[in-house]
Structures are given as structure tokens and as C-alpha cells.
Amino acid sequence: MGAAIASRLIDAGHRVTVWNRSASRTGGLVDKGARAAVSAAEAVADAEVVITMLADARAVETVLFGEHNAVANLPQGSCVVQMATIGPAAMMDLARRLPAGIDVVDAPVAGSVAAARSGELRLLVGASENTVERLHPILSGLGTVHRCGGVGTGSAAKLVVNAALIMAMAALADALAVAEAVGVDRDVALSLLATGPLGGAVRRATALGADFSIALAGKDIQLTLDLVSDRSVPVARAAATAVDAAPDQSADLAALVMKEGT
Fold first, then answer.
1. Which of 50, 71, 116, 225 has the highest CB neighbour number within 10 Å of its CB?
2. Exposure string over 237-253, b if 16+ CB within 10 A, otherwise e
3. Is 158 tagged catalytic?
């Protein structure tokens, strides 16, 4: 996702410096015109806007404050746009720890890698009005900006979106299991379900260019469950169990539903 977002920014004419913990992953972006930095600190040294798209809160911590300590090199007046799904508490902690004079935008995204490349993401944005207006030309180039409130609200909204997606995919898997048990052809079942309340799940299960690993889905649904531990959410808990039981955790979330070869 990070590479797709960087590619979109390059296509829009922005000067882009890229850094990845796996340096080999930046090669295609360099071919498109990006500059590759040898460290996170170098990547942010002269940046006006720094976008982070990492796996989880621990990775964000390591890159910004820990081993790579990119924060120490942030120029005054720059802005950190945090796009990973890390939850509202981690996002607000990040904002508190940034030096004075550094703005922050809480902007996790909803959508596939293909949507990132085409500028059709949904950005769930939590930030001050002034900061959102300042960055609107960049953010709107990536997709539709949904203003959720202050810092932390974008991350909270992203948990709602991802929980709904994961629960819907688990429900679709069960519906297809019922279809198989009662003798309804799988393609017929998918066609029927596509026009009903699980239509969105059917479209996601059959989409091309999606890349949201089961492992990351498991991380997100568990983060959600940790925050709603005092609520009765049996469907979310069942979905978490289904995700955890998936044999190939590196596969796209659609593997919960789609059989091999489909």
C-alpha cells in the first residue's frame, strides 16, 4: 500500500523521497522518479509532508521514535501523516510525542492497492481544520477525504470500517458453506448474495488488486476487540476466530471465502 501511495504521488507531480525497511522494495519507485533514502532520518530531513504506511503500532514506534528515530530529523513546520491502522490510543500518543512545531494528520485509508494507484482511496482523516486544509491538495489526490474530527478519530473510524469488512467476509464464508451443504452451486450463490446485504463482501472477495493479508486483518480485529472488551460483540469475536484459524496468514483476506483456483 505504501508503494502504491508513493506511486500515485509521483504521478501527481510531487517530489517524493522513499524509504522502506526492506530497501529492495523501493526500486520500482526510483525508476518512476522517486529518490531513495538510505535511512528514515534521511528521508524526512527536508520533507514538508511525511507519510507513514507501516504494518502496526510497533513498526510506527520503531521508525519514528525508536531504532530509526526519524522524528529527530523532522524539519520545523513539517507534517506527519500517519496512515497505518494502529488504533486511536497509539495515534494520540504519537501526536503528543511529536516536537512542537510539527503538525500531525491521523489518516488511515480504506480501499485496495489498486484504489491507491488510481486515487480512489477513502481517507479517514482526524486533524485540525487548518491542517486538513493545508494538506488537502495532497490528500485529495489520493482519494476522497472523510473528515472524522480531531486526531484519533480517523484511527477509530478505521477500526469500525475494518471490523465491518472482516465480519462481512466471515459471514460470506459461512453463507457459502451453507450453500454447499444444501446443494446450491457456488457461482449461483455468489450471484444471489451479490445483490443482497453481503453484496459488498462479494465484491471484495472477487476483487482484483486487493492486498490485505489475513495476518493484518487479525491484528486489526484483535485491536478492535481489545478496545470493546466490555461490550457484547459475538459476531466480531467469531470473525476473529475465523481469521486466526486461516491456514495461510499471508494470503489476502479473500482467501477466507474464495477456494483455490477461483
1. 116
2. eebbebbeebeeeebbb
3. yes
